[in-house]
Write a structure and sequence with these properties.
By secondary structure, the protein is an alpha+beta fold. 51% of the residues lie in helices and 24% in strands.
């Protein structure tokens, strides 16, 4: 029992020391709001040590550093598709507005303003787009949500630093329809590419055939009687060059007659 009494007495002493301490500290990333018997003053206390009247005054901290929040909810698109949206937001309290945030929002801006504001903005903007547009125009959807958020949050001394749409989820039926459309588009693109390739190959064949026909026509124009006689003479000359001087050997039949000149005569 003595040990318990000592612990209680020590705790009371600590509480009294804290309550009677004439100084309070505002750490980095915060601002202070001084209350006198529960009534907040209009002054914003910056980081550091500040004097206060023990018991009568208390210094309350309001974070002004960037806070992060995430949320999700359902909404309806312009074409009445159910959309489940998950978002993330970074925000902070304007330092000069900490007194109103403490007094009007109970120092709970996330619960009092951020969550309902995000839900309202997401539902309002989602209703302006079809389900397919929410996917294809995602950046525009995000920008419009941010614009709606900033207008509402600024009235309460809050600033939107970053906002992102983490994910859109649709019904199973809609997802299957999107997948089917994507597959059909891919097949269409493939068919168009194949058709283009076939057309190019056909044009190439026509071009080659036309070139060959033009070449043959040109050759026919260049063939003259003189050229034919020249080719015949060249062929005969090549045959004579290859002849070894021996007459063909045959059995039966006449020996080919050779005309070796009109000046020769046969002996009698």
């Amino acid at each position: 029992m003595q040990n318990v009494s000592k612990l209680i007495a020590g705790a009371v002493v600590i509480v009294l020391l804290v309550a009677l301490a004439p100084f309070a500290t505002v750490p980095a990333g915060n601002r202070g709001v001084m209350t006198t018997f529960g009534s907040p003053s209009a002054e914003v206390y910056s980081e550091g040590i500040h004097f206060r009247w023990p018991i009568a005054q208390s210094l309350h901290l309001v974070p002004v550093s960037i806070q992060k929040g995430e949320g999700e909810g359902d909404a309806a698109s312009k074409d009445l598709q159910t959309v489940h949206t998950r978002v993330a937001i970074n925000y902070h309290v304007r330092p000069e507005s900490v007194v109103s945030v403490y007094r009007d929002l109970g120092n709970e801006p996330g619960e009092r303003i951020i969550i309902p504001s995000v839900q309202e903005a997401v539902k309002a903007v989602t209703a302006r787009f079809t389900a397919e547009e929410l996917i294809s125009r995602r950046s525009q959807v995000r920008d419009e949500i941010v614009l709606a958020l900033r207008e509402r949050m600024a009235r309460h001394g809050l600033v939107v630093d970053e906002f992102s749409i983490v994910n859109f989820n649709f019904s199973k039926t809609f997802n299957e329809a999107i997948e089917a459309k994507t597959t059909a588009d891919q097949l269409k693109m493939k068919a168009e590419r194949d058709l283009q390739r076939i057309e190019v190959e056909a044009k190439q064949k026509v071009s080659r055939a036309r070139a060959e026909a033009d070449a043959l026509a040109l050759q026919r124009q260049q063939v003259t009687p003189e050229l034919l006689r020249l080719r015949e003479t060249e062929n005969q000359a090549k045959a004579i060059e290859k002849w070894d001087g021996r007459l063909p050997t045959t059995t039966g039949g006449a020996i080919p007659f050779l005309n070796i000149g009109s000046g020769s005569s046969s002996g009698k």
